[in-house]
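Hi all, long-time lurker, first post. I run a small reading group and we've been trying to get comfortable going from sequence to structure in the token notation. Rather than ask abstract questions, I figured I'd post a concrete chain and ask someone more experienced to write out its structure so we can walk through it together at our next meeting. Sequence below, copied exactly:
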Amino acid sequence: MLIGRLIAAAILLAIPAGATAKWIGSAEHRLVESQTAATPSTGQVAVASASDVEYCNPELKKILRRVLMSCGLMGGDAARGCQPVQAKNVATMSGSDFNALFRPMKERGGIVQFDKDKSELDKDDLSLVEKVFADQKGASYFFVVARASPEGSVTHNRDLSKARAEAVMSHLKQKFNDPDLEKEVGMLWLGEEFAQLEDEFCQWRRSSTSECGGSKNKELNRSAFVAWIDCQL
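-- Answer (accepted) --
Happy to help. Here is the structure in token form:
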């Protein structure tokens, strides 16, 4: 009788741990769960811990949480993503400071460059998106941060950068059979208004081999930054 009661108690105690380990459909619930979930696998702990040491500072984590809550990762929501005005509010910092948070991700991310006034992905763009996305290494969130160069109207460039972010998302849906995709990919479209990339980002892995920097900086900002974020949130 005593043994039976002990077994029943053990089963009851095990239920909450199993429940908190489930993947939650919305970003808000996932963030709450991440604070109380059961310990992940050894491989995932190693990846996240190493990344936390390298670039996951408190400021970056704060920005990432705001993006997750304000800019998407809500499964099935057609209005996913953040446009420039929202992105400024989410970041609560200057564009250069915002970009500085992502500089340590040079080896983890890539910059997909588009033709002027275009949002279609060519074969080199597709190849880079696939390589970066396939290199998940246990990370939970994939960011797509699209921009436009300062030609044309502000409104047009907002729409153009949105189309670029959505082009990346559309290809991921077609290429990868990932049931959690809608809950993994966070998108920001910045237009020409916020956080234009500086020359130092020319050294990143890019889908274009064209000259970059200086007078060619406009070409660098016809782009979408893509990267898995390893930070434990």
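A couple of things your group might point at:
The first helix runs from residue 2 to 20.
Residues 1-51, 74-79 have pLDDT under 50 and may be disordered.
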